């Protein structure tokens, strides 16, 4: 063997030894991290059996089912049937024009441009009026729910 090839072999063995040390230390670090994680974790059995915490919650929206039925409502000369008593109770609190715009947008599926033309407004103004009507409708429904 020549001196150059012996030196290259020595460099290769040294590099391999270095890589093995790095891999071993990475494995040790990963094991320590897992042990630390296991120490900090709490099992579900401990939480449910010893402390009696429920695993689920009930949503207040689903606590009392709404009675089945259709609630007739007349807007723009058409009678529509609403599935929600809360919505049927809140709609009369809106101005007539807002009710009509909501009807045209969500029941007739008209674009904001067509709604705006019908009321002598631009597309963005019609969009703004519909979004304001939805916000007001939400407030009215929340007021009915709370009250």
Describe the structure in brief.
The protein is mainly alpha-helical. The protein is 63% helix and 7% strand. It contains 6 helices and 2 strands, in the order ααββαααα.
How do the strands and helices of this protein lay out in sequence?
Blueprint: H1 3-40, H2 44-50, E1 71-75, E2 78-82, H3 85-90, H4 96-106, H5 112-118, H6 123-146
Antiparallel strand pairs: 1-2
Helix pairs in contact: 4-6, 5-6
Task: Tell me about this structure.
The protein is mostly helical. Helices cover 63% and strands 7% of the residues. The protein has helices at 3-40, 44-50, 85-90, 96-106, 112-118, 123-146; strands spanning 71-75, 78-82. A two-stranded antiparallel sheet has the order 1-2. The longest helix has 38 residues, at 3-40. The N and C termini lie far apart (96 Å).
Question: How would you sum up the major sheet?
Answer: 2 strands, antiparallel
Q: Give the N-to-C terminal Cα separation.
A: 96 Å
Strand residue percentage: 5-15%
Q: Which sequence of SSEs, written as H and E, runs from N to C?
A: HHEEHHHH
Query: Taking Cα atoms only, what radius of gyration do you get, to the nearest Å?
Result: 34 Å
Total of helices: 6
By secondary-structure content and strand pairing, the structural class works out as mainly alpha
Tally the beta strands: 2
